[in-house]
Specification:
Shape: elongated
Largest sheet: 8 strands, mixed
Number of helices: 13
Mean pLDDT: 79
Distance between the termini: 83 Å
Helix content: 10-25%
Oligomer: single chain
Length: 683
Amino acid sequence: WFNQADLVYAFQQGQYESGLPADWSQGDWDGAPREGDQPPVGDGLFNSVDLVRAFTAGNYRRGPYDEAAGEPLDGLAPFSRGNQSDTGLVYDSQTGGLRFESNHLINSVSLFSAAGIFTGTGPAPLHPFDVGNDNNELFRLVPSGATSISYGWIARPGLTLDELYDDLLIEGSRFDGGGLGEVTLKVCDFCVASDFAVERLLESQRAVTLTYAADTGEIAIESHSSAHITAIELTSDSGIFIGERPTGLDSQFDAVTESKLLWYSHFAHHRPRAGSQFSFGSVAKTGLSLETLQSDLHLRGFFAGSSAFGEVTIVVCEDCIDFEQLQPFEPGNEPFMAGDSNDDFYFMPGDIVLAFQAGEFEDTLAGNSEWIEGDWSDDGEFDSVDLIAAISSNAYGIGAYNEAATPLPLDERFPITMSGDGDVVITYDQSNGDVDIVSTVPLTTFYLHSASAYFEYDDSTTLLNVSGGHHFFRLTPEGQVESHFPGALPANMDVMTLVEDLTVNGSRFQGGDLGNVVLHCRGCQESVAGDLNNDTKVDAVDIDLLCLAIRNQDDDEQFDLDLDGNIDERDQTYLIESILGTVIGDVDLDGIFDSSDLVRLFQSATYENPDVVAGWSTGDWNCDQRFDSADLVMAFSANGYSYEARMPGQTRQLQLTDLALKDNTLRFVRKTRSPSQQEFWNE
C-alpha cells in the first residue's frame, strides 16, 4: 500500500536529490516492472523523477491491501513529554489551529489522531501528496524543506495538553535525512493564524522597505532579500490614496480606494509574476512627511511560499524611485499551461531546458523562482511540485498554438560543431547507431532535434523524456555526465549528414547552457577533401557535383573548397589542380592530359551534340553540361596538354585506402586553408 508512510521513510534516508546511490526503499521508483519477488531497479537515484512517477501511477492512498500483508507499516510515535526539544507542535486551544516548528529543515510531517480531531476545514494541498481532508490523518510534504508549517484552524478546539498527548502520533523526516527526533507539544491561546503557511525565510530575509516620493506621490515596495513578493495590502487611516487604479492592478481581486491598496500576483496576471521590488506609480497624495506616513500606513504582505512580511522601513525622498511599474494584463496571454516556460502556448522539451538553465531546481534559496525559471505551481520554488503540475497538465507535446502566440515555438537550439574538444561530446557509432554523451560537468537536460526525424530510440516508459522522430530529450534533475543510448540513430549514417541535420540545447546542473557541443564518430572513415558524395574517393563524379553546385549557385559550404566564401569556377580549379593534382582535360584522371583523353572523348559522341548532357569524363570542363569548342579552348589555353608517352598503370584517383589511419575513432574537423593553398591563390 502506497501512502504517506512510504514517502516519510524514503525521505528519512537522506538521498533525495543528493546524487548518492538509492535503491527501491530509498526512493528509486522509476524502474522497470519487478521480476519475481525482487523490487524494480531504476536509475539508482532518488529525485523528482521518482516523485513524478509515483504521482502519475495513480495508486497513492488506494487499496485494498494484499492478503499477505499485515497492518500498514509506519513509524508513527507519541510526542515527547519533556521540555527540551528543538522541534514541536503548537496547538491553539481557542481556534484549533496547529503549527509545526523546528530548528531544522523538515521535508515531511505526518500526524495521526485516533480520536479524529482534524475536523476543521483544511488548507488546499501545497504538494499533490499532501493529506488534509481526513479527520484522522494530516500530512505535509515539502521537498525543499521548511522550518515552520502552519496548518490553520484545522483541529477541534478546547482540547487539553494531556488529551493531545494521549491522542496524537507523529513521524516525519529532516531535509538532510533521519527522523524528527523528539517532538514536544505546546498549548496556547490565539497564537496560530487561520491561514496555511510554510516558512523558510529568516526574520532578516522578510524585511521590506516602502519608499514614498513626496514630489510625485509614487509608492514602491522592495524586499531586502531575493524572495519574491506575491501579495501586498497597504492601508491608510486617513485616506492618503488618490483612488486612481494603477495600470498593474487589473484583476477583480485587486483594490484601490482612498484607504486601501490591495494587489495579488496570483490573480492579476493568471500566472506567477512575482518580483522582489515593485512600483505602484503615483497612487498617493504628494507632500506627505515621514512622520505622517509612519503613523498612518499599515503594510502587510506575503512572499512566495506564504512567508509573511517582517519589519517594514519607510523612506521618504524625491525623484528617487526607478523600479519597474506593474504592467497591465495583456489580452491574448490568458491561456497558459504548467510547463510552458517560454510563453509560446506549447509545452515541449525546450520549456524544460529553459527552466533548468536557471539553475534553481531544488536550491536552498526561498521564493527565488519565477514562471520562466520553473515555478509553475505559484509557490516561488522550482521543485518536484512543478514537474508534477506540468505532467498533470496533460499538454506535453500536444495542442495548437494560441492565436496570440508566435507562429513558431520559441525553442532555442544550436548547431553541433565538428572541431575542438567540446564541453559536451556526442559520439555516434556508425556500426550500430549507438549514441554516447559525455560532458565535462553534470547535465540536467539534454535535447537533440533532428530536422529529418532520424531518431529511432524508444524510451516511452520514462516520464517527460522523449525519443523518436524529430526529438531526443533526457531529463536528469540530479545531473549526469555520461549516458549511453543503444540504437538511438540508424546505423551507417554519414557523419556530415548528422552535423547538418542535428541541433542541440540543454542545461548544466548549476545552471547555464551546454557550451560547445562536438560530434565524434566511432568506426567512421576519415573524410577526404573534395569527396563531395562521401564515397571515400575523389573522382569525376565529385567534379560534376561541384559543377552542379556552381550552376545552381548553391551556398553549401562543403562546395567552397578554396574557403574564399564563394562557390564558383575557382573551386573547380582548386579541386582539379590542388586536390586531384591534374589539369583541365584529364578525362580519366590519370594525371596527364594527352591523346588518350582526346580519343576517349570523341568516342563518347558528345562533341557539339545538343541532345546529350556531358560531364567531366565526356568533355564538359566549364560546367555548362556541354562538350564543345569552348571546352577545348579552355583546356589547351591552360597549357596542360602533354606530348609525352603515358606511364603504364598510372592513375590519379585519390583513394581513402591510400591514407594511413592511426585510429578507428576519428574526429571530423572542417578544412582550413593551408599555407600552400594561400600561395596558390596569391599566384
